[in-house]
Amino acid sequence: MRILSGLARILIVCLLVILSHECLGADGPRQRSILVLEEADFRSPFYLEIFTGISAAAKQNGKIHTVIYGESLDLARFPGPDYEESLVGHLKSKYAQRQIDVIVSIGVASAKFLQTRKQEIWPTAPVVYGFVPDLPETRALFLPDTTAIFARVRPTHLLTAARAIVPDLTHVVLVGGAWKNPLVYGQWKQDFAAAMPGLEVTDLSDATLREVRKQVAALPARSAILTSAMYSDGEGTYYSPAAALARVAESANRPIVITSDTFLGRSGVGGFLLLPDSIGREAGEVAMRILDGKAPSSIPPFSGDNVKPIFDWRELKRWNVDEARRQRGAVPRAQLLGAALLALHDRRERGADTSVDDHHSVTRAQAALPGRDRGAPAHV
């Protein structure tokens, strides 16, 4: 009987130990959460790469499991107060039982949405703004207890890229709705006038896709097309920016300067390109610092390393940017590096042997970059 009583006491002690461990685990660090609020469709390559970059940063830097939620506001395709009200109701209901520890807001439209709606939905969550330009008008959108990583292709960047391809440039054509938005390109008219007095500018930012295609098919020789994102043909049909740009490229008789590396190899000659993976990783790293206890207000907003000059080698040849001009520096060395890597990627896609010649071409391009160690990997 004493033996049985002793065994019972041992079992009770073991049960208490097990229960105490479970209670300690329940009182320990809980799962943390990030909400990624993107201004456009997650399925587009650009915004998908941003989300992937945020996820990679969370996985790499997180000591505790972090769940990442994602929402596409899609306000460009669905404008108007009725949709916005329905969106607010949906988000309030969806996240009513979910604690959001930090919001990563991607794009100017998301920043504007949070400025007026955050208090209704996530009143206590700090915010990291990503993929926003460093402009006074943009900073005015920032809420308290927030920080930002800026990403911007400046209007003068597009002009520099256009002049690298068209050295006697006298005329540019603006395509895409972002040219109308002062929160994206700021005061581009003043920027252009200061950089190139006398430059002729045709603004097609309000034109239908049908009219854009007609006009870019008959441009004079010393012209270039400067693009921004297009989401609609202006006649009731909505496109992804890549699909809309492809439609423009089908008709264009002059080179197209682009602003994202997700367009590279599809349409456009290149330019100073936004790198969405870098945008995502930078925002994700800051979000993880906040989750680890850093106050957002103690992290000053800063410009990210997320814009690089990259050109499509095949497009350079198409528009007769010959070797002599490249050697004279008409296209900067960093841009040629990007083109060399794109050519390497293209050959690998086709299954060609890249083991010797392409390796040496990339190595030579890396060594040509000013201030770069020969053994260091290139970042484009």
Q: What would a concise description of this structure say?
A:
The chain is of the alpha/beta class. Helix content is 46%, strand content 15%. The chain contains 15 helices and 12 strands.
Structure description:
The chain has 15 helices and twelve strands. It has helices at residues 2-27, 45-61, 81-94, 108-121, 136-139, 155-165, 182-185, 188-195, 209-216, 241-251, 276-291, 313-318, 323-327, 333-349, 357-368, and strands at residues 32-38, 66-72, 102-106, 127-132, 146-150, 171-175, 200-203, 223-227, 256-257, 270-274, 302-303, 307-311. Strand 4, helix 5 (136-139) and strand 5 form a beta-alpha-beta unit. The radius of gyration is 26 Å and the shape is globular.
Q: State the end-to-end distance.
A: 78 Å
What is the ordering of alpha helices and beta strands? HEHEHEHEHEHEHHEHEHEEHEEHHHH
Radius of gyration: 26 Å
Overall pLDDT metric: 81
Estimated structural class: alpha/beta
Proportion in β-strands = 15-25%
Strand order of the largest sheet: 2-1-3-4-5-11
Main sheet characteristics:
6 strands, parallel
Percent of residues in helices comes to 40-55%
How many E-type strands? 12
- The helix count comes to 15
